[in-house]
Design a protein that fits this description.
The chain is α+β, with helices and mostly antiparallel strands. It is built from 5 helices and 10 strands. The strands form 3 sheets. Strands 1-6-7-8-3 form a 5-stranded mixed beta sheet.
């Protein structure tokens, strides 16, 4: 996505001197992934297709893994962009697994989700809704910040009541994975029905 009038400015020279809000997920905390079956649950992408990917993708000086505070965030972030229509296919859901990632150590995020998080850095909400190119430049700059964050905590664009995480590439041993399988599995049907009802999404082609 190219820069447009009204896009968020690139990272500024004083960013490294700003004190960001930090959010720490303690050892034992659980976050969620709705990931493609062709990839492992712990997968750091380098496509350049996501908001906080490394700006030099697809070669990628680092990978980024996206997760949600709950399955609801994962669902709307993944399924809310399939067609733009209020429907999702069973085949799409079958191609993805829900996973719980339990942290084996504390993980620290630069917090853009809480009040003041953006302003502490001289940023604003356009960083979360505008140009991917600019957001990826900020991702690289924040990764190099002196606080040495493990990633970025931010509000879901498609449901700002939910919190998402962009996690910079780190050892896979940081996460203990529990695979819950496809949302189409009978064991997950109650959760799926809740998600479909909450977001008013139709399930098709089943």
């Amino acid at each position: 996505m190219s820069d447009r009038p009204g896009d968020h400015p690139p990272p500024h020279a004083e960013l490294g001197r700003r004190q960001p809000l930090l959010y720490v997920l303690k050892e034992g905390a659980v976050i969620f992934r709705l990931h493609r079956r062709v990839h492992e649950a712990v997968f750091f992408g380098k496509t350049g297709n996501n908001r906080f990917d490394a700006p030099d993708c697809p070669s990628g000086s680092y990978g980024v893994m996206y997760a949600g505070e709950d399955p609801h965030c994962c669902f709307i972030e993944s399924c809310g962009q399939t067609t733009g229509a209020p429907a999702v296919s069973g085949a799409y859901l079958e191609g993805r697994y829900l996973a719980e990632l339990e942290l084996t150590r504390a993980v620290t995020f630069i917090d853009l989700a809480e009040s003041g998080g953006l302003s502490h850095l001289g940023a604003d909400a356009r960083l979360l809704t505008g140009s991917y190119k600019i957001a990826q430049q900020w991702s690289a700059a924040l990764r190099k910040h002196p606080v040495k964050p493990d990633g970025i905590r931010y509000r879901s664009r498609r449901d700002p009541g939910r919190v998402a995480y962009a996690i910079y590439e780190c050892p896979r041993s940081t996460f203990k994975v529990t695979n819950r399988g496809s949302l189409m599995n009978p064991a997950n049907r109650k959760l799926l029905n809740e998600l479909l009802d909450l977001y008013k999404v139709d399930l098709i082609d089943v």
